C-alpha cells in the first residue's frame, strides 16, 4: 500500500479499544508518539503473529501502521527471493501460503534495518537461533525498546537453564514479556476462536500494550504477572506432547492419554516452581497452561511425530521422521526433553520427574516407547 | 467358585498392600473383622467397579472375598434372568460383555439382601435413581456402614443443589466419600492404565480403606480431603463435554476446543467454590479434574452425541440421538446442564457462567450450536 493510502486510512483508526477493557482509551494523534512494531521471525507462527499484529496497528491510533518483519532470506525454487515474494503477494508463500498478512506488513531481509525504528520488538524464531540474533542486535536497537518473546524452548548453560526472555533481557538490556497459549498457527490464520496468555514481569502498562497489540475478537489475550510460569508452560508442554504421542502410537486409549497429560502437567508445575519459586499455580489454569497442553497433545507436530515413532517401535529415529513428516519445520520437544534432562541430571532431580526423564530416554533410544506407561509406579512413589 | 475353594485361596492372601504406601500393613486373620463390600448398581461402570473391587477383596486379608452386586433385574431376549446370566457366565452379558468380573462377584436382584451384611457400600447407579434407592435402604443397612458414591450428577431441590454424597449421608445417616476420575469404563475393563481420585470429608483412615479397595497397578487412586470439589468435577465435566462436542460437530479445530475446555474448567472451579467455599483449587489438577475433563471431551458419550447434535444443526433432539446412538445408556450432560441452569437462574448467576448457560440453551433448542463460540465476548467481560 502506498504511504498516502496508509495515511488516509489512519485517519479512520479507532480511538478506543472495543474489546479490551483493561486499556485506557486515549487519542494519540501525534504520530511521533505512536509505537512502532517489528517482528523478528517469519516462520509459520511468526507470519500469523504478524497478521494479528498488523490488523491492530492498522486499526489503532497508538501504533504506526507499518509492521516490519525480519525474514531469513531464501531463494525460492522460482528463483525469486522470499522477501520479494512476500512483499509482492502479501503472503508468506513458503510458511503460510494462502493467507494475506495485511498490506502494512513489510518483509525485510536486513535484521538491523528491521529493528532500527521500533520500540516494540516481537521475537518469534526457533529457539536455537535466539542467542545469535540477540548478539547481532546489541547497540542496534532503540534505547526505549521493549521486547516480547513467542519463542518456546530454553538454553541450558553450565550454571543452569536460561529462559529465552532472560536471554533477551540479559544481552539487550531491555525488559521482555512473553506470549504463549493454545495456538496452532494455521487455525489462528483462518481466524478460528482461540486464547493466549501474556506473561509480564512488573509493569502492568507494558503488559496492557502487548495485550492491545495481539488482541482480536477471535484471539483473546489475558495478562498474568508470571513471566517464568507462562514461558515454562510453553516450553515444557512439548515434552508432554511427545509422551501423549507415544500413548497414541501404542493405541492405549483416552484414559491413559488423559492420565499421562495430567501427570505431565503436574511435572510442568513442579519443575517450574522448583526453578522459580515465584511461579504461580493459577498460571497453569490459563491458556498457556492446560489449554496449550490440550491443543498440543491433540494436534501438534510433536505429538504427531512421537506417534509415528511409537508405531515404528522406535526403529526409525526422530531426525528421520521429522525430515519426512514436517517439510522443514523443526520439532522442539526432542531438544527440550534433552535440555530438561540435563537440568534434572545436573540438579539430582531425575527421580522426581519420571515422566520428563522417561520421555528423553525414549526419544534418545535408551528405552522403548512402551516405557511411557511402565514408569507409572515410580511416579506414584515419587510424589 | 465353591466356598471351600475360596477359603483355600484366602489362605494365600497378601498380608500387606504392595502398591499402596498410605496403608499400614496389618494381618487380619480374624474373619469377623474383615470388611464386607456391596456394590449397588451393575451398569457399564458398576460392572467394571465390581471387577476392580473383587480383585482386591480376593487378594487382601482385610476384606471378605465375596462382593455382592445389586442388579436391577431384567429378562434377557433368551428368556434368562440377567442375574442368572451374570452368575452363570461371570460376565455382565448386557452391560459389559466379554469381561470376567471375578468368581467372587455375586449378582443379586434383591436390594435389601445385597446390603444386609456389608459395612462398605459402593453406589454406582444413574443419579436419578439414587433418592429412591436410598429411601428403600433406610433401616436395612449395618449401623457401622460407610458409603462411597461413584454417581455423577446432583439433585436440584427448592433450597438448592444437593450432591449425591450428601443425599446418601442425609437419608441413611452414614458418612459418604466419592470416587471420580478419568475413567472410561471399557478402557479400565481391559486394564489400560488410568487414575482416579477419592474425595473424603474428614477421616483419613476411611479414605485409605477406599483407596485400598479400588487401587490396582493399572488403576492408580489418590485421596484428597474435598468431597464436594471431587464430586462437582465428576458432575460438571459432562456439561463441558457437551460444549466440546458442539465444537467438534462444527469442525472448529483444536485451539477452539482447548479454549472451550479451559473456559469450562474455569467455570467448574468458580461454580464449585461459590457453592462450597471449602473446595480447593488443587482438586482441579487431580484425575477427577483436568484428566477426567480431557478424557470425557476426547472420547465420552456426551461429547459424541453433542457432536452429532451440532452436525445436524440442532434439528434432531438429544432424546432422539441418545436413543439411536447409546443402546440404552443415558446421557448425563443434558440433565446436569439443565440442573446447573436452574441453580444459576435461582441464584442470579447466569451472567457469571456464560459457557454453562449457553450449553443448556443449545441443548434445549433455544440457541443454535454455533452459539457455543459466539458467547466468547461475554465470557471475557464477565471474569
Automatic annotation (TrEMBL), chains A, B:
Source species, domain of life: Eukaryota
Glycerol-3-phosphate dehydrogenase NAD-dependent C-terminal domain mapped to chain residues: 226-373
Keywords assigned by UniProt, alphabetized: NAD, Oxidoreductase
Compositionally biased intervals (Polar residues): 18-29
Name used for this protein in its record: Glycerol-3-phosphate dehydrogenase [NAD(+)]
Substrates-to-products reaction catalysed: sn-glycerol 3-phosphate + NAD(+) = dihydroxyacetone phosphate + NADH + H(+)
Native source species: Arachis duranensis (Wild peanut)
One GO CC term, this protein: cytosol
Residues reported to bind substrate: 152, 301-302
Binding-site positions, NAD(+): 41-46, 129, 185, 301, 330, 332
UniProt cross-references to InterPro entries, sorted A to Z: 6-PGluconate_DH-like_C_sf, 6PGD_dom2, G3P_DH_NAD-dep, G3P_DH_NAD-dep_C, G3P_DH_NAD-dep_euk, G3P_DH_NAD-dep_N, NAD(P)-bd_dom_sf
